[in-house]
Amino acid sequence: MQSKDFDGFTVNIFLDEDNEWLAHFVELPHISAFAATPDEAVKELKLAWKLTKEAQISG
User: Fold this and answer.
1) Which fold has domain 4-58?
2) For the whole model, what pTM was predicted?
3) Domain ranges of the chain
């Protein structure tokens, strides 16, 4: 999945061994989010990405 919400980065979504959905950037695997559903994982990843960008700007 690629989305304008993620500045062109590719997002990988999969069910992990703990039966939680993990969404992460293929190019930046250290930025990730877990949730009960794929949609919630993407929503949480959007928040993580927003906070990461804000930290980079203010840091």
Assistant:
1) Double Stranded RNA Binding Domain (3.30.160)
2) 0.87
3) 4-58
Whether the CB-CB separation of 20 and 35 falls below 8 Å is answered with: yes
- Distance, first Cα to last Cα, the chain: 29
Question: Tens digit of pLDDT for each residue in 4-41?
Answer: 789 999 999 999 999 999 999 999 989 999 999 999 99
**What span, in angstroms and rounded, lies between the C-alpha atoms of 45 and 59?**
20
- Let me know the angle formed at the C-alpha of 50 by 42 and 8, rounded to the nearest 5 degrees: 65
DSSP string, 1-59: -B-GGGTT-BEEEEE-TTS-EEEEESS-TTSEEEESSHHHHHHHHHHHHHHHHHHHHH-
